[in-house]
Records
---
Amino acid sequence: MIQLENVGVDRQGRSIIAGVSTQLEAGKIHVIIGPNGTGKTTLLNAMFGELALAQGQVRFAGQTLLPGKARGKFLHGWRDTFAYLPQDTAADIALTVLEVVVLGRLGKLSLHIDDETLAAAMERLEQAGIAHLAGRDIASLSGGQRQMVLFAQVMMREPKAMLLDEPVSALDLKHQISLLDLVRRETRARDWVTVIVLHDLNLACQYADNLLVVAHGKIQAAGHPRDVVTENLIEKTYGVKVEVLTDRAGNPVIQPVSGI
Ligand SMILES: Nc1ncnc2c1ncn2[C@@H]1O[C@H](COP(=O)(O)OP(=O)(O)OP(=O)(O)O)[C@@H](O)[C@H]1O
């Protein structure tokens, strides 16, 4: 479980997130939604130790991240059990896809890459459905293909917590579903604490066990989408008129209502 207690982060003297407290259970998918610039990436970065906490604390795997910039050995140990896929997956680097995936084990690699590591990297590529790209240069791939390669790379870390910032933003519908299905399967099977930032509200409602609605640097609502999503909440959060319908599985479907 990741526990956030009264977490706050400032940037350039401005409070970006403040007073964030929540518990993120293992084996579940926690989806963060919210308008642009409201602190979703900041929240992931705070959990990863990338941004210093101004207040509060984050607890995970028997360790506590406190205010101030975590450094050196502590930060290394803290991040050891996290996998983090950032929003920006640009990769202007002369490596093949297989090499990029192997780098997911960076902390454990020696000069000689053993057969087990190569087999594990190929297995992750197969799981992501992109084994056929193994020999391609990463720089020659499309944005969506790169997103899947970097997901295969973070799976190589064998994490306890998976932090994914808009992991399907460049993927077509079929690949969005296959990646999120894979994330759900692995989250359940490996007991990851999975936290995903998504902009697609309907994918968020379909995949979240726990939906965190972030606006103005605070969690405005949290819980199962069926329990938290209302027309009023979405309208207040995004300033857009919507209708909330229900799909066959009973999950909310958010339909914007045209102003015409
Ligand atoms: N390097 C930075 N220096 C100062 N302020 C920053 C920096 N990066 C982000 N911010 C500010 O922090 C706020 C939150 O940004 P953040 O990236 O967390 O938002 P977000 O909710 O993830 O947005 P998006 O949906 O657009 O990705 C924004 O107001 C942004 O301008």
---
Amino acid sequence: MQDNIVRIEDLSHRYSKDWAVKDVSFEINKKGILGLLGSNGAGKSTTMNILCGVLSQTQGKVLIEGIDMRANPEEAKKRIGFLPQNAPLYLEQTVDEYLTFCAHLRLIDKRKVKEAVDTVKEKCGVAHFSNRLISNLSGGYRQRVGIAQALIHKPMLVVLDEPTNGLDPNQILEVRNLIKEIAADRAVIFSSHILSEIQATCQDIIMIEDGKIVFKDTMDAFNNYIEPDSLIATLGNPPAETELRAINGIKDVEFLTEKTIRVRFEPAADIAENIVELSVLRKWRLKEITLEKSSLDAIFAQLSNKKSKPAIQ
Ligand SMILES: Nc1ncnc2c1ncn2[C@@H]1O[C@H](COP(=O)(O)OP(=O)(O)OP(=O)(O)O)[C@@H](O)[C@H]1O
């Protein structure tokens, strides 16, 4: 039995003359959450739009349960629920009217429409807003309605393009939990340009930059792969900047306050250990030291200097 629901093979897409996506291949497992991480313009939306059959690729193949999206889009699309980057909501409709409309679009049997609408409202926590106009919902609840429309026909795969974008921290947590719940019995792929979003939610990660995959593996492998390249230390009796800069492997020193410094270093260097030892020897009175995870830019730089990792198996 196949354990993946999607196979994307050598996908490339060109808008006029520039390639937005180039030779992208990956699989999506039948269960769990796959995160698609990339900075703005990396090619996330293009990949998702092609995956969902709303954009036709220049080259390559998308197979949903073995069904070719280009050759048989109706069958392939039945298996997918999609929340595009801008949720396709009709603000002048109530939640009930909108979801009922979506259920009809998905050709759900007329006798089962109410049940389908009630189920997704319950699942997405919007049942108490059934008769409210979508225009009167907060951003977080609008996003929940957007996710509800993606679930209405019980798809095996749900594709969410930047679902937490523009939400406040509480709403982000709520939407994250909802995504985890809906992934309990189906596959979910969601995109974000925020690393912590993907780290908090996904088991697997694909990182895309300039239309190319620069990393794909499990989230654990990613976290192990990314080496910290800076630390913050608080010292009761900090040395002069020149003394710190003289330590082998340190690239840069920045005083954040009188007693707190950020030290940037070469990825392989054992700087934290050195600072702890030197602090004892030279009486710097180290109070706290924390390694910082690399920024997305630093990670892209690290990854582009290393070879692309093997595919998720
Ligand atoms: N309709 C279009 N016509 C021309 N170029 C486009 C079009 N849509 C996207 N692009 C370009 O293709 C590249 C990839 O864009 P895409 O929207 O897929 O990236 P993204 O990772 O989703 O970024 P964002 O998070 O900013 O939406 C970008 O350089 C973008 O400017």
